[in-house]
Amino acid sequence: MPDIHRLVVVGGGVAGVDIATHLAGRQTALGTLAVTLVDREPAHVWKPMLHTIAAGTQNIFQQQTSYVAQARDHGFLFQPGEVAGIDRAARRVSLAPLLTTEGRELLAARSLGYDTLILALGSRANDFGTPGVAEHCLTIDSRSQAMAFNDEVRIRILQSLVRDSPLGIAIVGGGATGVELAAELVELAELSEHYGASGAVKKVRITLLESGKRLLAAFPERIADAARRRLEKLGVAVHTGTHVTEATPGGFRLQDGSLVEAGLMVWAAGVKAPDVLSTLEGLDRARGNQVIVGPTLRTSRDADIYAVGDCASLLPAGQDRPLPPTAQVAHQQALYLTRHLPDLLAGRPAPDFRYRDFGSLVSLGGYDAFGSLGKFGFLKGWFIRGRVAQLGHALLYRSHQVRLHGFWRGSLLWLVDRINARVRPSIRLD
Ligand SMILES: Cc1cc2nc3c(=O)[nH]c(=O)nc-3n(C[C@H](O)[C@H](O)[C@H](O)COP(=O)(O)OP(=O)(O)OC[C@H]3O[C@@H](n4cnc5c(N)ncnc54)[C@H](O)[C@@H]3O)c2cc1C
Fold first, then answer.
1. Tell me, what's the pLDDT at 300?
2. Rounded distance, CA 144 to CA 50, Å?
3. Is ligand 1 within 6 A of the CB of residue 325?
4. What is the pLDDT of residues 348-373, one digit of tens each?
5. Residue nearest (by alpha carbon) to ligand 1 atom 26
6. pTM of the model
7. Which domains, from first to last, does the chain contain?
8. Helix, strand, coil: what percent of the chain each, to 5?
């Protein structure tokens, strides 16, 4: 029997599904890589588009990639389920029972053995222990949450029209998620009017609350200012330097005691890695629970465990801040491991991971987009906006699809989207 090396990838997001797709069946000095991908969702969605799924301006069923189908096409195994714990000594990953939405057990709790484990579990918003957030706020950190948000926002818009009362939507967090969601919700209200929801634009009142001095702290100031002006022009009330102390059933309580009233509250601030990483006893973790990795993305104390993307913390040599939790970093780290993991497993030298900052983009729905072109490339440092920036944003997603499905299929998917945009409703109506 040929030698097999069991590679388990937990988390099939931007980084994980790419790694499983490209490493399955690869020959290494330790044997053929038998790859198993674990995810708690049945399908992969490019996370930077979750706000569009939440608003219903993109159709989840057109944009998602089924893990089972991807596994069949690329020769890896898919294990559905929530990672509940990782036992480093036994080299096993335990999965919680898989339940239907009604709570029926589909699969019992299981555990999987690994020779090498890649952690790609992403991150979620961080409420920093703010009272009431868990009870009263929605988040859009996962495919299921984005779908649940969309169900809720459509019901609330209908109710507000039927009852002839305003619908306040308050979003905490002026990072890319909050800013992009605010714009997308404006677009949802506007597009709803085309389908008979007349008055929706006036009824839906969106407020964006940010504790920092400005929006988009990770972006250049020029982009933050331009995005704020555009949001305000779209009717979004933007409040910076505003600290939320509590989420109540009626809205967000601020530090000065006032209440920002809202019928729908969204928490999109802060970033932290999943709690399950705390079960990894003995590994170094950063403040947001991310696993600390070295320059080859190997965890600092366990040569059999690597971590990538938002759940990893890598401090590049000579810098004073770890890499940011972005799709760009996750993508480049996935690329690095698909190229170099076979050498790393064989104990052969591999270059250190080097992040190349190609810039950052923020998209305000169909209205506008802003970006800067980063520290690499021909036009480094340039500021872009409008159609060019929107195209840049779309290209990030399309290149991810090409990585997953190949050039022809990825291009066909793009074409299908263009056709659907012409022949199907522009928002989810069912
Ligand atoms: C609305 C929104 C907009 C964004 N826009 C941008 C942008 O414009 N540009 C940009 O660079 N970045 C953007 N980001 C950030 C970007 O999406 C993340 O940095 C990127 O997705 C990280 O990739 P990842 O592979 O580390 O994790 P993810 O893509 O989040 O994947 C993690 C995977 O792990 C799975 N998982 C998590 N916990 C468990 C568990 N316990 N058991 C089993 N499976 C689990 C999840 O289901 C998911 O499939 C945005 C994020 C959001 C939410």
1. 86
2. 10
3. yes
4. 999 999 999 888 889 999 999 988 87
5. 309
6. 0.95
7. 4-124+272-346 (3.50.50.60), 148-267 (3.50.50.60), 360-423 (no CATH)
8. 35, 25, 40
